[in-house]
Specification:
Strand order of the largest sheet: 4-5-6-3-7
Number of helices: 21
Number of strands: 12
Structural class: alpha/beta
């Protein structure tokens, strides 16, 4: 397509609409979404009367009309997002060339510079803010099938919660899931890491991030928190967008960030079970468990050169068990060996039997990849009584503990042990294994014992 003048450009627009099945003016208006006027008012990007007038005329339309019209037509025609973005870019390139030529003619009086139909280009940005897709995800086929069924069976505006213990792979799962849903959300995808680089984001700051993603400058964000909520939900009302709220701490942090538009969906990840979100917002909860032994071995084998694993199947399975079958711990352990393979794999596994070696797993130069830091983040969020109880039950063996045993270890009434166990269970720090018996992964148990030793040392110093 190489239109030579405005009239031919409009003719091509008419042909584009016909080529995708001639969507109605109403449908184009719906797919076109919203735009802002110069005074900040939000209006339809493709009003039906404007579409009709432009397609019957021969004047060069505005750039944002071209962007919205072409995008709407191609989305209606079922084109994938990548093709839509590329094709819209080509149309705007032709538009700029014609606009530049028309501006030069305007100096001679042929086209006025203040013609409302021809103005400087302002492309409509579609946010694509998901992190890089996760290239390697093992042992989650069944969970993805459940997630897809939940997504297809729930109405618009639904909330989905991915929850599980530290290091179980919630973020990786949600990001992979979200990438698979991109085509369902042509207006874009938003992403916020609610944990933040310097601590958890409160909902006010998180709303500022989301509004910024929608084109609202920081200085234009309402100061009042609930005004921010209203502004955010108004902007999302008629859009088809996916929102991923990663690493949420609690319900109070998440609730103001939920988009209420009927065409939006929200995916939340959290270590907390967020029962309030399930009860009040009807969130669909998907709990990720640790990997199977076979899947854990696959994760390790994908990073460790197979030459080092010859005749070491038993050690490979033992390392998976030592890592608690947690994807994060497995990857950290595999990378640690791959960085220094000269020690031999069997020798490496023997060193990992030391819980301090397990807790020290981290990636050099990557502060966000440390199992100790991840566990400390969860631990600090507990109250003092829950921290003490967590440390005490970490002293039991791998077989687990009953409420009665936990009460004895902590020196507290049975009812208090029940309450604190429920709190730890809500944060996925312990898990019920049946018959009112509870257990925790080996790495969490090692961390609990390390915290108990530190607490004992602190008490000794205080009494000295």
């Amino acid at each position: 397509m190489e239109p030579v003048n405005a009239s031919e450009f409009v003719e091509y627009l008419r042909e584009l609409r016909l080529s995708v099945g001639q969507p109605s003016m109403r449908r184009l208006q719906q797919l076109g979404g919203k735009t802002k006027t110069s005074n900040g008012d939000e209006v339809d990007a493709l009003p039906r009367s404007t579409v009709s007038t432009i397609l019957r005329g021969d004047k060069l339309p505005r750039s944002e009309f071209v962007s919205a019209f072409v995008t709407a037509c191609l989305v209606y025609g079922g084109r994938p997002p990548e093709e839509v973005a590329e094709a819209t870019g080509r149309w705007l390139t032709h538009w700029r060339a014609l606009y530049a030529a028309a501006s030069r003619e305007g100096v001679e009086g042929k086209i006025p510079q203040d013609d409302p139909v021809a103005e400087a280009p302002r492309e409509r940005s579609v946010p694509r803010h998901l992190p890089l897709d996760v290239p390697f995800l093992v042992g989650r086929g069944a969970e993805f099938r459940v997630a897809d069924h939940l997504f297809r069976s729930q109405p618009g505006g639904s909330v989905f919660l991915v929850t599980g213990s530290v290091g179980v792979g919630k973020s990786a799962f949600a990001i992979r899931w979200a990438h698979g849903l991109i085509e369902d959300f042509p207006d874009g995808q938003l992403y916020v890491d609610l944990r933040g680089a310097h601590g958890p984001l409160d909902s006010e700051h998180a709303l500022g991030v989301l509004l910024g993603s929608l084109g609202v400058h920081e200085g234009d964000c309402p100061a009042d928190p609930w005004r921010r909520v209203e502004r955010y939900r108004s902007l999302m009302a008629n859009r088809r967008m996916l929102i991923v709220l990663d690493n949420a701490c609690d319900v109070e942090q998440v609730r103001p960030l939920l988009a209420t538009g009927e065409h939006c969906r929200t995916i939340v990840t959290s270590r907390n079970r967020m029962s309030g979100l399930v009860a009040r917002e009807a969130a669909q909860r998907l709990v990720l468990d640790v990997l199977s032994s076979a899947a854990a071995c696959t994760v390790l084998s994908a990073i460790i050169d197979k030459a080092h694993l010859v005749d070491a199947r038993a050690e490979l399975e033992e390392l998976g068990e030592l890592c608690g079958y947690l994807p994060l711990v497995l990857r950290l352990a595999a990378v640690k060996f791959a960085d220094r393979p000269g020690q031999g794999f069997k020798s490496f596994v023997r060193t990992m039997r030391d819980s301090s070696q397990l807790l020290s797993l981290a990636l050099d130069g990557d502060g966000g990849s440390s199992i100790q830091a991840e566990l400390e983040f969860s631990y600090r969020r507990l109250g003092l009584d829950a921290r003490r109880y967590f440390r005490k039950i970490g002293l039991v063996d791998q077989a687990g503990f009953t409420l009665e045993r936990g009460a004895v270890l902590a020196g507290i009434p049975l009812a208090e042990a029940d309450r604190l166990t429920a709190q730890l269970e809500s944060e996925h720090l312990v898990a019920e294994v049946g018959g009112r018996k509870f257990t925790m992964p080996r790495v969490l148990q090692a961390f609990a014992r390390a915290m108990e030793r530190k607490a004992g040392e602190a008490r000794t110093l205080m009494l000295a």
